[in-house]
Amino acid sequence: MKKEVIVLNCGSSSVKFAIIDAETGEAGLTGIAEALGNSDASLSYKLNGKKEKQALPEKAGHTEALNAIAEIIASTGVQPIAIGHRVVHGGEKFKGAALVDDSVLEAIEDYASMAPLHNMANLKGIVTAQAAYPDLPHVVVFDTSFFQTLPKKAFIYALPMSLYREHGIRRYGFHGTSHKFILDSMAKILHKPVSDTSIISAHLGNGCSVSAIEKGQAVDTSLGFIPLEGLVMGTRCGDIDPSLPGTLQKKLGKTADEISDLLNKQSGLLGISELSNDCRTLEDAALEGHEGALLAIEIFCYRLAKYIAGYMVAVPTLDAIVFTGGIGENSSLIRETTMGYFAHFGITLDEQKNTDARFGRGGKISVENASTAVYVVPTNEEWVIAAEAATFA
């Protein structure tokens, strides 16, 4: 009998959903309800290989979307054993998945100030799903849990310690389910126990992060207090001078919220290129000589290479560098450009293997005599959530 789990990922204006076999990772149903709260709210899904799309009521919210999703799930005849919910921020309280109860819901709300766009949407999704599926166990899996093994030297900011003690100001890290999946996958590929596997994992999508994992434990990561620090991302700036937000408020006459919007939604690849946050669009434009696209890609790869090189300090027993996420899995140009900075480390890519590693095809892409192996591994965050939720069923 299959152990099938409903996986829900509620964003501020969307709900991603899937039915996942917790043992095999097979997805019989995947879909997304998007543009929630707008006149063009819609729901699209793929069931047993067939794509479907339906309109939602005008300005439909999470409740209407989840009710429609429940009807689709009911039509499949699947009898799920649990529902797994992705929640972005669990602070220091949650070191693993948790069965939803009143105290868990309260904690998610408490941590909302650290992820205001994410946690409250996650919370709304959980409460609505509980009403739709009152008899199933609801389990939350936090982006931050994987990084609870970070040592203080990696997560403490050079600020007054009272800010950490009294307000929880520290590096938390995100994309934890993806980095965990890559760790587990690389352990299998390398035929090593997880506890003896050491990698630098680069999750590259619209949001990006690099994690240093030494002998099965996260020891450093690029995303910080909120998912803004670190690498250049699709619309997020990554690392900047800490004085800039205050300076920009004064120079531009904007509020703190407006500056936050600028840093989170108008910066990154979009801000540099003045064209798009989509790496595919930028690569096409770069081939035609678009200066903004060329510069955005160059900065993206240079900053990524610096982070990877820096994390070699944190992973002395490094087995491999791994690329994942939409960009990491599919852009041979980004991988080639980034790893081009590592020639003097003795790390070189095999041109043909790098070109072939796209659209779900992963594997080793470095030359055989490289000092450190480089891999592409497609991620599967939903499977991680499903597997953890299944343990509570």
Walk me through what this model shows:
This protein is α/β, with parallel strands linked by helices and 393 residues long. The chain has 2 domains: 139 residues, 2-Layer Sandwich (Nucleotidyltransferase, domain 5), CATH 3.30.420; 191 residues, 2-Layer Sandwich (Nucleotidyltransferase, domain 5). Helices cover 38% and strands 19% of the residues. The strands form 2 sheets. An 8-stranded mixed β-sheet has the order 5-4-3-2-1-6-8-7, sandwiched between helices. A 6-stranded mixed β-sheet has the order 11-10-9-12-14-13, with helices on both faces. Helix 6 crosses helix 15, helix 10 crosses helix 11 and helix 11 packs across helix 13. The chain is globular, with a radius of gyration of 21 Å. The mean pLDDT is 95.
